[in-house]
Design brief:
- The chain is of the alpha/beta class.
- The protein folds into two domains: 151 residues, Rossmann fold, CATH 3.40.50.1000; 74 residues, Putative phosphatase, domain 2 (DNA polymerase, domain 1, Orthogonal Bundle).
- The chain is globular, with a radius of gyration of 18 Å.
- The structure holds xylulose-1,5-bisphosphate and magnesium ion.
Length: 241
């Protein structure tokens, strides 16, 4: 999908118009709505300490590991990279990830994590237009509540016509599954919607489902390749400048 330029309009004006005209806005969570990955990283490290593992994920290794979508898959990928000792069992990975999810909720409740610039304005504008919104994420469902309840209120889910998370589909991004499920719940063709994503994996997932993508660059994925995106913004406040 390429950007269609309207006569005398700037690409940004065109993006604003396409957003306003979309059948629905489909939003990624981590990195797009908020810079959550440092909190995920801290939660993984706390789970490793609790399990008495001598593992610690610094920023550099976490950036590599973020190529693997999904916490359990990420732990397995790291275990395979170490190549020492017997592989960690599925049950142990599930246990580690359960503790990680608990730690993530506790850290969120403790420190909180603000929405990124422009996100609230985008949500408010969509609500003002009566436009539907949806969530398509590869994080665990309870993590969405841990992030959004403090910033949007306990009833945040009523703002969204569909919320699809990792547990709801067979394959995580870059597979298109979360987007295909969202589109089926919305009963809309992909081309009529806009996805907002921050990563190359997210771009690929949405594109494979036929959804045009607007990128908002995030901390860990700012240097990803975003070929094929409608546009790449530093953050969503550019839409309201
Ligand atoms: C990002 C992810 C997630 C989180 C960790 O999802 O890949 O795996 O890093 O969450 P998205 P879990 O950008 O699609 O929102 O440990 O719950 O998997
Ligand atoms: Mg993301």
């Amino acid at each position: 999908m390429s950007l269609t330029l309207v006569k005398n309009s700037s690409p940004l004006e065109d993006i604003r118009r396409r957003i306003a005209d979309a059948g629905a806005l489909i939003l990624d969570v981590d990195g797009t709505l908020a810079e959550t990955e440092e909190i995920h990283r801290e939660a993984f490290n706390e789970a490793f300490v609790e399990a008495k593992l001598d593992w610690h994920w610094g920023r550099r290794v976490y950036k590599e590991l973020l190529r693997v979508a999904g916490g359990k898959e990420r732990i397995r990928a790291f275990d395979q990279m170490r190549r020492t000792g017997p592989p960690v069992s599925d049950a142990a990975i599930a246990r580690l990830h359960r503790v990680k999810t608990e730690r993530f909720a506790a850290l969120m409740a403790d420190k909180g994590c603000p929405l990124r610039p422009g996100v609230k304005a985008l949500l408010d504008a969509a609500i003002g237009r009566g436009q539907r919104m949806a969530i398509a994420t590869t994080t665990t469902r309870v993590n969405i509540d841990a992030l959004l309840a403090p910033v949007l209120g306990q009833d945040w889910e009523t703002m969204f016509a569909a919320v699809v998370a990792a547990d709801d589909v067979a394959r995580k991004k870059p597979a298109p599954d979360v987007y295909i499920e969202v589109l089926s719940q919305l009963d809309l063709p992909g081309a009529s919607c806009i996805a907002i994503e921050d990563s190359g994996n997210g771009l690929m997932a949405a594109t494979r489902a036929g959804v045009p993508v607007l990128i908002t660059r995030s901390l860990y994925f700012h240097d990803d390749s975003f070929d094929g995106a409608l546009a790449v913004l530093d953050d969503l406040s550019e839409l309201f400048a």
